[in-house]
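Record Metalloregulator ArsR/SmtB family transcription factor, 96 aa.
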Amino acid sequence: MSDKQESLLKLAELFKILGDPTRLKIVELLLENEMCVNHIAETMGMGQSAISHQLRVLRQARLVTYRKDGKTAYYSLNDDHVEGLVRMGMEHVSHQ
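=>
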């Protein structure tokens, strides 16, 4: 497989991950502030285990990262590329 083919497969996987409305909503929340699982769950009206599962998928895709403060993990976007990707996507779908 060529490097270009491999890159296209990785990009398709990234879009697949971001294609899930729950994960996209989590990313949208993290655009503004870092948040803990409990706060994300409350904001979205979902259980903590469901949110933790989605955060694990986002973390494995290197879209989010976390820091520990005692027993609490605070999640944030991994880097500016993630923010740019989401903001550009929003601009695209809002463009008439």
